[in-house]
Amino acid sequence: MTLLTTLNEDIKTAMKAKDKETLSVIRMLKAALQNEQINIGKELSSEEELTILSREMKQRRDSLAEFLNADRQDLVEKVQGEIAIVEKYLPAQLSEEEIKEIVSQAIAKVSASSMKDIGAVMGAVMPQTKGKADGNQVNKIVRELLNS
Question: What is the third-level CATH fold of 3-87?
Answer without folding.
Answer: Hypothetical Protein Yqey; Chain: A; domain1 (1.10.1510)
